[in-house]
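Tutorial sheet, problem 5. The two components below are modelled jointly, 1047 residues in total.
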Amino acid sequence: MTVSALTRPGERDRLVVKFSEIDWLFSFALCLIAGAGALMMFSIAGSSWEPWAGAHLLRFGILFVVMVVLAMVDLRVWFALAYPLYGLGLVLLVLVEAIGDVRMGAQRWLDLGPLGSFQPSEVMKLGIVLALARFYHSISADDARFSWWLLIPILMIGAPVLLVAHQPDLGTAMLILMTGVAVVVLAGLDWRVIATGLGAAAVAVPPMVMFVLHDYQRKRIFTFLDPESDPSGSGYHILQSKIALGSGGFLGKGYGLGSQSQLNFLPEKQTDFIFATLAEEFGFVGCFSVLFLYAVVIFMALRTASLAHSHFGRLSAAGVTATFSLYVMINGGMVMGLAPVVGVPMPMLSYGGTVMATVMIGFGLVQAVRVHRYSEVTSGKGSFL
Amino acid sequence: MSEPSIFFTEVNERQGVFHRRAFLMGGLSGLGLLALTGRLAHLQLVEAQRYEKMSASNQFNFRLVPPPRGLIVDRNGVVLASNRPNFRLLVSKDGKLDPADTLKTLANFVPLDAERQTRLTKDLIRAPKRSPVSVMEDMSWEQFSAINVRAPELPGVTADMGEVRVYPHGGAFAHVIGYVAKVNKEDLAPTGPNSEAIMLHPGFRIGRQGVEKAFDLPLRGRPGAQKVEVDANGREVRQDSGGDIPATPGKEIQLSLDADIQTRALEVMGDESGAVVMLDCRTGDVLCMASAPSFDANRFVRGMTGSEYRALANYERKPLLDKAMSGLYPPGSTFKPTVALAALEAGIDPEQRVNCTGGWYYGGRTWRCWKHGGHGSQNMHDAIKNSCDVYFYQTALRVGPDPIARAAHALGFGQVFDLGIPGQKKGVVGSREWKRKAVKREPVWQPGDSVSYGIGQGYINVNALQLAVMTARLANGRKALNPRLVRSIGGKEMPSGAAVPDLPFKQEHIDYVRGGMIAVANDVSGTAYRQSQLGLGDVMMAGKTGTAQVRSYDNVADRNSASVQWKLKDHNLFVAFAPYDAPRYALSVIVEHGGLGGATAGAPRAREVMRVALLKDPEIRARIEKPLPMPELTPDGLAEGAAPEAPVAGAPPNLPPPGGHI
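Model answer (structure tokens):
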């Protein structure tokens, strides 16, 4: 197929063309990360596919197909679904508030009977990106800079954040908040507003920590600030994780030989702390490679966002990338003792279906933006479908 | 952009802003990833070694292995204290263990009654984390293997083989060697050897008495360690035998004791209460130091029940007390050789005679001689031989307390010897100076004090060890021997007891006193003639009898009646050395409440113990077994009143004594 062929009207709507427009290098990087995760799970299960590695790969395989399918979905459909998805997320969050399961002290789960259970807050991670992208798609640059219109994104972000924080799931609430803020900033919020907001946050955080947070949340933060003060108690996770990382050294202890993870010193070794497992067995070289893969994913996704011709496409792809990037930063920081222990997994690397589903569906959107980067999305100002 | 696009409708401000912001976001992400990489580099490259150590200390535990406790052997290498294997059942508390439940399960395999279960449950709850509690010792092989097979289903339960102290001679050495027992909270110290972690090991025992206590540190050795890989719950994953540090066994301690002599001594004591101490007169080595009755030290190692302990502690004859070192008795007539020596040194002519009429009126009262009819005219030799009280009343009065005290000190009374083990009591050696300081009620030495001092009563109190030292010094005749109990520690020889200055007495004086003691045992009219016959040819014993009053007899008609309560009977003492012509062994025997006169209870026992020592000595044996030259067999020594210095060579050992002496 020649380049000029793609310029023919309707040519880009052909499925084969769409398929070829998927960023396969990007997809390959995702496969590598998921594969590294499965490799580590195989190791810490004592060279066994059970219970994690096999399920992880299977899940990734399915979600990879889902991503490819979603990449075929026209950007206008995404556009049309933006508000309904956000609305659905909000409804589910209210529902979970009313009838959700309490697990481990927090009301986060919605029981779907035979389909299992899931966390509506995950829907919101994508919903907020789509809704904000759609909103900003419809307003001008000036309005996006600073106007009364901005009350709408504040409400759009504030509602789910408060609902999720009330569960309480501070980690996810912060993630939704930061994703939303990222989109708002990307859309062109005035620098003075950003500076004021940052200043206000700096002032507001300490009293928030002291008076609003739950005890265990506060404890996590204090522990993060001084992990060695209580090495067998709440500082245990951070300390053991740092030991796992540090003892890995340059080349690591060798595959299957990480004592910290194999002997259970490392908590949550297959989920939140899988990066430490990797660090222990493959050392700096392994960690650097995986971080490099994450960098590749982030930059390729951002490039995709920049290539989009529609503002909706740009903002939604960049918003998903921001979420992903935040996951990596928060989990990486947590594992390395730079951030408090919050239940944020390393996307694709950690075991666990919910986050992987969120991320892969998000990347489905990113791929869709790439595939449909030339599509014109009608300004939907005033219309909700 | 290389690709042409038809649909770009909006090259507007929004796109420009987005591109700038997206570029910024990319920059921020890049910075974030860079920060993470930097942090990684710091942890994994700069601080790697520190974390490697922490990881290793997570992964590996060194399980302490108690060292085998050093052996204690006698002078000939006979083992007095050793270790034997012991199958132990241990339960260690790790997080999830329910002590009561676990013990209930264990009761299916080993006998654990409800009472013991409750006690162990309490112990377990109190025990520090991961320090195992011994649930049962000395399991049978069947019990051991039954538990071991089920170990995987019983978290926190281990059955292992340790070592336990064993005293093959039971009670014979209990007082000297002591015993070991579990470590108490009081034993733990914040610093020093008693702060070591091995103290908390369930197999570790600490010395409680005697040699075990005094030489606890050299006997302990250094604990080894077994390198084990553990998981986060402290459970053992595998052993790394390459990383084991072998335990250094404790040092072997060789005592100067002779197991044969010691066991014989305890045997002849029978049910009596008392002590036997034997020294080598040439070196000062303690060959025997027995206290009777004794107790089985092995019972202490296993841990005694309260009632068992109470029975021992409350028994009238005090088995837990070491009577050889810490039992103090008036020496009675065994003190007379000392008084005689003091008199000789003071210039008193030994041939000066004193007439004994059975009593002596002095200071407003009659001082009785033990012999009602009296001994008649006595010189010093006769007085020692006959143990004439009147002679010594008068002699002591003439000499005064201070020269006697000096002689007593020179012979070893009133002092504590450096045996290496604790528990000796100093006793009392009276003198003017001493009384002024010690007796507040009546600080002036009265002449009457000297009178009773002369027969070893009053302000004189000694222990069996001191009596043996006195005898050994007299027998040696030259050296102020010190007793030595510990011969070597870990092969390192301890200083000999003979490396000491000479006695401050004239040789002829010592010889004279010894002559008296020879007569006691070999002159047919000596107080212990019959009981002192060894039956070993020309190897013969010299000795001195003694009676120590435990109450005043002024108002008692018959002090020798069989009806007298055991507790009120006199102590019976005997000191002896042999062979009298070339002394090698000196001993003292004290039989508490053994009755009047050292010959009845003390001398026969001394003879038996002495025979064992002599027969074990190869040189003495050669002498005994050498056929005697015929002409020397003339029984001139049999005649009554023979020359005191002449040995009663070849006297039939069981010849009935001519008079009713004691």
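Marking note: The first helix of chain A runs from residue 15 to 21. Full credit if you identified this.
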